[in-house]
Amino acid sequence: MVHYLVKIIFLLFIIMPQNILSCPFVEFGREVHILNSLPGNSPQLEYHCASGDDELGYHYPAIGTDFHWEFCGWINTLFFCHFWWGDKDSSFVVYNDLETCIWDGRNFIPSNTVKCLWKVQDDGFYLGYFDEYAGENVYHKYRDW
Residue span of the signal peptide, if any (predicted)? Predict the structure, then answer.
Protein backbone atom coordinates (compact mmCIF):
# COMPACT_ATOMS: atom_id res chain seq x y z
CA MET A 1 0.00 0.00 0.00
CA VAL A 2 2.77 2.47 0.90
CA HIS A 3 4.63 1.63 -2.32
CA TYR A 4 1.49 2.42 -4.32
CA LEU A 5 1.08 5.83 -2.59
CA VAL A 6 4.74 6.71 -3.27
CA LYS A 7 4.21 6.00 -6.98
CA ILE A 8 1.12 8.23 -7.08
CA ILE A 9 2.92 11.11 -5.35
CA PHE A 10 5.89 10.72 -7.71
CA LEU A 11 3.61 10.81 -10.76
CA LEU A 12 1.85 13.93 -9.46
CA PHE A 13 5.19 15.75 -9.22
CA ILE A 14 6.07 14.72 -12.78
CA ILE A 15 2.82 16.01 -14.31
CA MET A 16 2.62 19.24 -12.26
CA PRO A 17 3.48 22.44 -14.17
CA GLN A 18 7.09 23.56 -13.72
CA ASN A 19 6.22 26.85 -12.00
CA ILE A 20 4.34 24.97 -9.27
CA LEU A 21 7.37 22.74 -8.72
CA SER A 22 9.66 25.74 -8.42
CA CYS A 23 7.51 27.22 -5.64
CA PRO A 24 5.00 24.84 -4.08
CA PHE A 25 3.68 27.61 -1.79
CA VAL A 26 1.89 30.17 -3.98
CA GLU A 27 2.17 32.92 -1.36
CA PHE A 28 6.00 32.81 -1.65
CA GLY A 29 6.21 32.87 -5.47
CA ARG A 30 8.13 35.95 -6.64
CA GLU A 31 9.37 37.44 -9.93
CA VAL A 32 12.14 39.90 -10.71
CA HIS A 33 12.02 41.81 -14.00
CA ILE A 34 14.78 43.94 -15.51
CA LEU A 35 13.68 46.20 -18.36
CA ASN A 36 16.26 47.83 -20.62
CA SER A 37 14.91 51.38 -21.09
CA LEU A 38 18.14 52.95 -22.29
CA PRO A 39 18.01 55.32 -25.25
CA GLY A 40 18.54 54.10 -28.80
CA ASN A 41 22.03 54.26 -30.30
CA SER A 42 23.61 53.86 -26.87
CA PRO A 43 26.27 51.39 -25.73
CA GLN A 44 25.18 47.80 -25.11
CA LEU A 45 23.80 47.13 -21.62
CA GLU A 46 25.32 44.09 -19.92
CA TYR A 47 24.43 42.59 -16.57
CA HIS A 48 25.10 39.56 -14.45
CA CYS A 49 22.63 38.37 -11.81
CA ALA A 50 22.94 35.64 -9.19
CA SER A 51 22.05 34.50 -5.71
CA GLY A 52 23.87 32.18 -3.35
CA ASP A 53 22.11 29.24 -5.03
CA ASP A 54 21.29 30.42 -8.56
CA GLU A 55 23.63 31.61 -11.29
CA LEU A 56 21.52 33.52 -13.84
CA GLY A 57 24.44 34.36 -16.12
CA TYR A 58 25.44 37.36 -18.21
CA HIS A 59 22.82 39.10 -20.32
CA TYR A 60 23.00 41.58 -23.21
CA PRO A 61 19.39 42.69 -23.69
CA ALA A 62 18.13 44.71 -26.63
CA ILE A 63 16.54 48.05 -25.81
CA GLY A 64 12.95 47.57 -24.69
CA THR A 65 13.37 43.93 -23.68
CA ASP A 66 12.55 42.44 -20.30
CA PHE A 67 14.64 39.73 -18.64
CA HIS A 68 12.91 38.05 -15.72
CA TRP A 69 13.03 35.03 -13.47
CA GLU A 70 10.71 33.37 -10.97
CA PHE A 71 11.62 31.79 -7.66
CA CYS A 72 10.35 30.89 -4.21
CA GLY A 73 10.99 33.89 -1.99
CA TRP A 74 11.89 32.88 1.52
CA ILE A 75 13.00 35.13 4.36
CA ASN A 76 16.69 34.75 3.49
CA THR A 77 16.46 34.92 -0.33
CA LEU A 78 18.83 37.46 -1.90
CA PHE A 79 19.54 38.21 -5.58
CA PHE A 80 22.06 40.78 -6.76
CA CYS A 81 23.03 42.12 -10.17
CA HIS A 82 26.06 43.90 -11.59
CA PHE A 83 25.31 46.26 -14.50
CA TRP A 84 27.68 47.70 -17.13
CA TRP A 85 26.78 50.39 -19.65
CA GLY A 86 29.55 52.11 -21.57
CA ASP A 87 32.01 53.44 -18.98
CA LYS A 88 29.45 53.13 -16.14
CA ASP A 89 28.88 50.21 -13.82
CA SER A 90 26.82 49.57 -10.72
CA SER A 91 25.99 46.58 -8.57
CA PHE A 92 23.33 46.17 -5.91
CA VAL A 93 20.75 43.82 -4.41
CA VAL A 94 17.61 43.50 -6.57
CA TYR A 95 15.70 41.26 -4.16
CA ASN A 96 16.02 40.58 -0.43
CA ASP A 97 12.59 41.25 1.06
CA LEU A 98 9.47 39.09 0.86
CA GLU A 99 7.18 42.11 1.33
CA THR A 100 8.67 44.92 -0.79
CA CYS A 101 11.37 43.40 -3.05
CA ILE A 102 14.23 45.14 -1.21
CA TRP A 103 14.50 46.27 2.40
CA ASP A 104 14.95 49.92 1.54
CA GLY A 105 12.00 49.88 -0.87
CA ARG A 106 9.48 50.01 1.96
CA ASN A 107 8.98 53.75 1.49
CA PHE A 108 7.56 53.43 -2.03
CA ILE A 109 6.68 49.78 -2.75
CA PRO A 110 3.43 48.35 -1.31
CA SER A 111 3.54 45.31 0.96
CA ASN A 112 3.04 41.89 -0.62
CA THR A 113 4.56 42.93 -3.94
CA VAL A 114 4.97 39.77 -6.01
CA LYS A 115 6.67 41.27 -9.10
CA CYS A 116 9.77 43.36 -8.54
CA LEU A 117 10.13 45.61 -11.58
CA TRP A 118 13.51 47.19 -12.32
CA LYS A 119 13.94 49.68 -15.14
CA VAL A 120 17.42 50.66 -16.35
CA GLN A 121 17.63 54.19 -17.77
CA ASP A 122 20.47 56.52 -18.69
CA ASP A 123 20.02 58.47 -15.43
CA GLY A 124 19.89 55.40 -13.15
CA PHE A 125 17.79 52.55 -11.86
CA TYR A 126 14.09 52.60 -11.05
CA LEU A 127 12.20 50.14 -8.85
CA GLY A 128 8.55 49.62 -9.54
CA TYR A 129 5.42 47.57 -9.06
CA PHE A 130 2.13 47.03 -10.84
CA ASP A 131 -0.58 49.32 -9.41
CA GLU A 132 -3.82 47.36 -9.70
CA TYR A 133 -6.01 50.44 -9.22
CA ALA A 134 -4.27 52.51 -11.90
CA GLY A 135 -3.75 49.48 -14.14
CA GLU A 136 -0.12 50.40 -14.85
CA ASN A 137 3.43 50.03 -13.61
CA VAL A 138 4.60 52.69 -11.15
CA TYR A 139 8.33 53.38 -10.84
CA HIS A 140 10.43 55.33 -8.32
CA LYS A 141 14.06 56.21 -8.82
CA TYR A 142 16.18 53.93 -6.69
CA ARG A 143 19.72 55.04 -7.50
CA ASP A 144 22.00 56.74 -10.00
CA TRP A 145 24.58 54.95 -12.08
Answer: 1-22
Q: Are strands 115-121 and 29-36 parallel, antiparallel or unpaired?
A: parallel
Q: pLDDT tens, 106-143?
A: 888 888 888 999 999 999 999 999 998 889 999 999 99
Structure letter (DSSP) for residue 108: T
Report the distance separating Cα 100 and Cα 95, nearest Å.
9
For residues 45 and 126, give the distance between their C-alpha atoms in angstroms, rounded to a whole number: 15
What domains lie within the chain, and their CATH numbers?
Answer: 24-144 (2.60.40)
Is residue 89 within 8 Å of 48, Cβ to Cβ? Answer: no
How far apart CA 112 and CA 101 sit, in angstroms, is: 9
The span from the CA of 136 to the CA of 85, in Å, is: 27
